[in-house]
Amino acid sequence: MPEDFYLYIRGVTEVIPPGYTESGMRAYRHLVYLGASQMVEAHFPAIREQMGEEAWKALIQAFVRQSAWTSHYYGDLKHEFLTFLARETDSGHT
């Protein structure tokens, strides 16, 4: 069940896990996105400025959905974001 929770809040699935409400899960997803966005932007403000709001939002959503970050601390996202960008660049997605 915890895996279903994480898959939903990361945007991998749209299936609400049993025992949770849609509104509650949307709130969790938003908070994860917001936290990731703020922490990444704190380290890389020029990227957001250069990309524009829609492209930035898509990048952060892809990062949250696809990254392998396991730390419970948003402050640890810098290294994982750099790994994500390298992987995306190598695969031709950015």
Word description of this protein:
With 94 residues, this protein is an all-alpha fold. The protein has one domain. 70% of the residues lie in helices and 0% in strands. The chain has five helices and no strands. The protein has helices at residues 2-9, 22-43, 45-51, 53-66, 77-91. Helix 2 (22-43) crosses helix 3 (45-51) and helix 3 packs across helix 4 (53-66). The protein starts with a helix and ends with a helix. The relative contact order is 0.12. The mean pLDDT is 89.
How many distinct folded domains?
A: 1
Order of helices and strands: HHHHH
State the share of residues found in helices, binned by percent.
Answer: over 70%
Mean pLDDT: 89
Low-confidence stretches: none
Secondary structure category: mainly alpha
Q: Quick one: how many beta strands?
A: 0
Distance between the termini: 33 Å
Q: Name the overall outline.
A: globular
Radius of gyration: 14 Å
What order do the helices and strands come in, and which of them pair?
Elements: H1 2-9, H2 22-43, H3 45-51, H4 53-66, H5 77-91
GO molecular function, one term: DNA binding
Keywords: DNA-binding
Domain Putative DNA-binding: 4-85
Question: What is shown here, in short?
Answer:
With 94 residues, the chain is mainly α. 70% of the residues lie in helices and 0% in strands.
